[in-house]
Amino acid sequence: MARVEPVVGEPAAVADLDGERAVLVADVHAGIEVGLRYERGVELDSRTGERRERLCDLIAETDADRLVVLGDLAHRIGAPDGDEREELETLVRAVTDRVPMTLVEGNHDAGVAEAFADDLDVIGPEGGLIGDSPGAVGVCHGHTWPDPGLLDADVVCTGHEHPQVRLEDAVGGSRVERAWLRGELDSAAFTESGDESDRAADAPELVVFPAFNERSGGTWVNVEGQSFLAPYLPVALPAADAYLLDGTRLGDYRRV
């Protein structure tokens, strides 16, 4: 059975697949500072170098053979150009000088696959399997209905949602933390048809990844009335635990 294990303290996980170790991240949003300046007139110091170094350090620390990005490698919606294109080129080069890189296309990745076709292995927006069955891991971004073939995996990994929890203390103070969501997948609710015939006998585990980029915002999953982004959430995850990046298990995310 495939295992997807978070890297303690990081918005990343590792999976051992057919003798190859992959490190997985979601929602890198390279060029976010450029995008915020262009979209909203917000000026922020660039963390380009920090993001690139963190990815390269993760590859080294986990002894990974491959980096898998679960969508939204880029931030601006549209073909990358200018400063964003330059950041992506530097990041992709830094990673692929070390290991191969797989991109699952997200809604922010328009033009990225084409621009970096010679450098990246690309999986389409509907997702796919990495590794051989049995023991494959399903990967998708989460902005569109996934390929029902992902239900053949032991574990399905998705991004897009940027899950966060709002935590309050006894005196009314609060903070927001990035979080993982993990639980058994309702396979019928995971498919666009919603057909009960799609229900798997052995339901995969669904792992919703926190955003790698801490500036990209997210869904407050424990706040009543908060809308989810993925078309299959929250119904495809009827019960799930939330975990902080440091590994703290918070229990049912709805009751945190």
Describe the structure.
This protein is α/β, with parallel strands linked by helices and about 260 residues long. The protein has one domain: Purple Acid Phosphatase, chain A, domain 2, CATH 3.60.21. It is built from four helices and 15 strands. It has helices at about 30-40, 50-60, 80-95, 110-115; strands at about 5, 15, 20-25, 65-70, 100-105, 120-125, 130, 135-140, 155-160, 165-170, 175-185, 205-210, 220, 240-245, 250. Strands 7, 8, 9, 10, 11, 12, 13, 14 and 15 form a nine-stranded mixed beta sheet that branches. The chain has a six-stranded mixed beta sheet with strand order 1-2-3-4-5-6, covered by helices on one side. A hairpin with a 6-residue loop joins β1 (about 5) and β2 (about 15). The model has no long low-confidence stretch (mean pLDDT about 90).
Under CATH at level 1, the class stands as Alpha Beta
Question: Would you count the extended β strands for me?
Answer: 15
Q: Mind telling me the C-alpha Rg?
A: 18 Å
In terms of structural class, how would the helical and strand content be classed?
alpha/beta
Strand content: 25-35%
| Main sheet overview | 9 strands, mixed
Mean pLDDT across all amino acids: 88
Task: Give the overall silhouette.
Answer: globular
Helix content: 10-25%
CATH topology: Purple Acid Phosphatase, chain A, domain 2
Q: Determine the N-to-C terminus distance.
A: 30 Å
H/E series:
EEEHHEHEHEEEEEEEEEE
Uncertain segments: none
Q: With helices defined by DSSP (H or I, 4 residues minimum), what is the helix count?
A: 4
Number of domains: 1
Q: Return the CATH architecture.
A: 4-Layer Sandwich
